[in-house]
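User: Look at the shape:
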Amino acid sequence: MAIIGLDVGDRHIGVAMAVGSVAVPVDVIERTEEADDIERIAALARDYETELIVVGLPRSMDGSVGAQANLVLDFAKVLANRIDVPIEMCDERLTTVAAERLMRESGTKRRKRKANIDAMAAAVILQSYIDGALKRIE
């Protein structure tokens, strides 16, 4: 089963992919018009024969849903109306911090980290979702 993970931000959308139980960063989409952003994600979903899309939900540290989380929820609703792939939300608190740490520890140069941080954050979100699903199965 192919799964796409998304880290939706104001300027970029990080994209990760999992086939099996390992998530890997794939791409960073530069935000333009929402319709164009949705179409690029829909094209990826078709190309990879995606069966599920996991979208990171940026909750506040206290777990509440703030302004940014509401924007992401609105984006996910538009995406859900455009494609015929189930969409799940996944708490993404501190994923960018984790992605930055992983890239730094692996020796990734600063410029490359900056260019790819959103895709790596999407991979962290997706891996978190996969790990949680595996725990629920056990």
